Amino acid sequence: xxxxxxxxxxxxxxxxxxxxxxxxxxxxxxxxxxxxxxxxxxxxxxxxxxxxxxxxxxxxxxxxxxxxxxxxxxxxxxxxxxxxxxxxxxxxxxxxxxxxxxxxxxxxxxxxxxxxxxxxxxxxxxxxxxxxxxxxxxxxxxxxxxxxxxxxxxxxxxxxxxxxxxxxxxxxxxxxxxxxxxxxxxxxxxxxxxxxxxxxxxxxxxxxxxxxxxxxxxxxxxxxxxxxxxxxxxxxxxxxxxxxxxxxxxxxxxxxxxxxxxxxxxxxxxxxxxxxxxxxxxxxxxxxxxxxxxxxxxxxxxxxxxxxxxxxxxxxxxxxxxxxxxxxxxxxxxxxxxxxxxxxxxxxxxxxxxxxxxxxxxxxxxxxxxxxxxxxxxxxxxxxxxxxxxxxxxxxxxxxxxxxxxxxxxxxxxxxxxxxxxxxxxxxxxxxxxxxxxxxxxxxxxxxxxxxxxxxxxxxxxxxxxxxxxxxxxxxxxxxxxxxxxxxxxxxxxxxxxxxxxxxxxxxxxxxxxxxxxxxxxxxxxxxxxxxxxxxxxxxxxxxxxxxxxxxxxxxxxxxxxxxxxxxxxxxxxxxxxxxxxxxxxxxxxxxxxxxxxxxxxxxxxxxxxxxxxxxxxxxxxxxxxxxxxxxxxxxxxxxxxxxxxxxxxxxxxxxxxxxxxxxxxxxxxxxxxxxxxxxxxxxxxxxxxxxxxxxxxxx
Length: 700
Hints:
With 700 residues, this protein is an alpha/beta fold. GO terms for molecular function: protein O-acetylglucosaminyltransferase activity.
């Protein structure tokens, strides 16, 4: 009525805009505020209100313009500065957002809302200590502000003050016990404390109030996986997919869970569905390729085709550097290593003794770590590097630029398609020579990766076509074992005490396929009285133990022939080798680290000859340790060797007494010898590049 009586009445249009906004008619509200401004261009409240509606519509650029006009007209009003700062934060202008919100706090230091906004901006910038001060100030001023308690809890968690985070999170729930976000926040904190069961309880509580949240279902699934309750995790992952069937990360997580259940074929289908939703996600490609590389019916041509697709998509988004060959002129070769496994991990275990023996007059070592967790292995590795760079939070282009800025000559990928890899950065060609080594057992698919480092056993000439990279073969093995920092001595041969032979396998249970169970059952039938000791973390679950017994029972092997043990501390793990006479390497996926550790503990390993890189790993280790006669050519030979070795107690006892020393003297344990070969390889790659291009250099 006011507008009808006076069509140029700006305040009436502003009031109309407020009413329309309250009714949820945001487009009409924008028009009404626009009319108010048209009739009164100096109407600061109308500009502010227009900015509010535009913010709810996520039109942040337009909202910022409107708030700027409001600030210009009324520079002393704190809430307008606060709104402008919040809009700037939403569109990613962190520095200006923080400066604007500080001005809002100066204008009204008693306004809890502007303190909360400033705290949020500071937390977004990673300045959590400052953010905590402002969230605590909000609580002082308002007491019962749920958002402030939630924000405080999150900021405390980011500072690793997890117990305090839990208390703030509990207070938020007390203030609003029907808000799902509060339970989710508390669950996150419990998860970080490794109180996984408590986290699961809180995620389930959150679902009571928000049952249609795919995020909560997926977080619950992740926690259930961590608790090794994979079948429950599968149900939650499937619920998340049902709620958001077009979201890539839902399918990718479901695939992760399916892989844990052992349903690799279904996992592969889910990874492919995720890539249909998001065809440029490197993490999904990595998971898919890891799965494909681990299939029993592996097809090298099909794998390579998928790997090339991954490499091509990464190259599409890259702007690779061009490098001009230049001689070293007396300087050291600068070698960079990219890994998330500079810790207690097979990569860290095999790397430690090597970097300790590299000739620092020939090579300069630079680490680029992609994972924050550090341990005693990290502490021992760090001193051997001239540079140590954390790139965990850097994007692909930032990672590539950081590496390029370090003037690396030879860049070594230690991950391949495993967790925490940075393969997309290699597509930018930040170093003139790039090589993949140690962490993975199949081609990366990255055309810019020049070499794949192996040896004559894992990379025979007949299998070169499995890789986009050119092979570079080290003279002995591509692996060098680092003796563990555990003082567990080799014990006497157990069968002398037990009266029967005990075969063992301490690797992941997923490697013990149905085919392996069948062959091992034949072996146990062929050696009366023999027992099989299986030690794996999966065997902590009684249902899995029952299923394992049932798998062997299907082949006539009773439960009395099996000894099933869950994972343990490292000391207890090494001590367990003193209860096994001969270790059985599964196939086609043999033990790598466990093979080397078995030999260290004086226990010989029976392996099977393979047909591709990963299936050759045990061969490489056994040849390097001088145990080539422990490699079977086929199933019949595998069983025949097991029977023959089990009958010669004297030979097994003598071998056990001297195997550790034999291993230490062999190429597998001779770190100095290996380090010289590795230095020569890096310098050889450099010389080949100076002479032409990696493509023109001969395969080694």
